[in-house]
């Protein structure tokens, strides 16, 4: 009893909504189709940095050159005839190689991250379905509108981040010292003085010619382009399209023919589609149509089902090539499941009787 009461409330609510949604300013004797506008999408591309720009450093060590220097190795003095001067020998230290610093590269440090990008947005739309066990002969009396949400989809992309850029640190390079001997006057001569001239020596030593330096190289960032779908215009609006009452309900035959065992459209078939269905779809931009293809009973049942689906899809693909959006079209092959006469498997029929079953139809759907 409780289930029956719930069904009655839903049925009454559905009838109330259906009664309120009627085309405004309708003309007597004309037919109208209720259409729900679809969501409109577009694909956009976005460039993502998956590896950042960073620096590479290369060091060049210091260079040296050898130079000569004149040094005093014996001081000038005086010599006495009677008592010569007394000398002592000492060692003098000098820098034979200057100390400096070389540079050592400390490479850059990186981290790994995962960035999430939305590749398809969350959407919602109204969908209509017929209640089971409808007590009315007219199925439209039991139509229920349900708002269905579809979650967004996303994609993870691994990227590298720069934690610490490259740098350098100093590495000391030791210098070197050497000594040379030098005679110093310990006691001066007495009595007669004789001049003793100074003595010199040429020594070699290494000095820094060019200091250490860094060569810097910039490694460019690595980028990747991703494609995602974004919602341009929200659908779900109810519009009414006036159509010829002859095609407003039921199936409408498209008198097109295919070559034997083929789903390819002939030029004559394309003209028939242009004059009938294409013209209707361009004039009534909110209509959605199902293309239905049928075969006769001759041949394998599964093969006939596949062939009819291919033929229905051929019509859909042709309309899309003429500018009709694919989401306004549905292709359905019925094979030999909807024969219009007695010519089922094993029944002897004429070619004309079989031809009746080989047909392509269309019907307007919400």
From TrEMBL:
Primary location recorded for the protein, binned into one broad class: membrane
InterPro entries the UniProt entry points to: Bact_OuterMem_StrucFunc, OMP_bac, OmpA-like, OmpA-like_sf
Pfam families: OmpA (PF00691)
Localization per record: Cell outer membrane
Keywords on record: Cell outer membrane, Membrane
Keyword Membrane: yes
GO cellular component: cell outer membrane
Source organism superkingdom: Bacteria
Keyword Transport: no
Signal peptide segment: none
Domain OmpA-like positions: 243-366
The protein's name: OmpA-like domain-containing protein
Organism: Neptunitalea chrysea
Highest classification ranks of the organism: Bacteria, Pseudomonadati, Bacteroidota, Flavobacteriia, Flavobacteriales
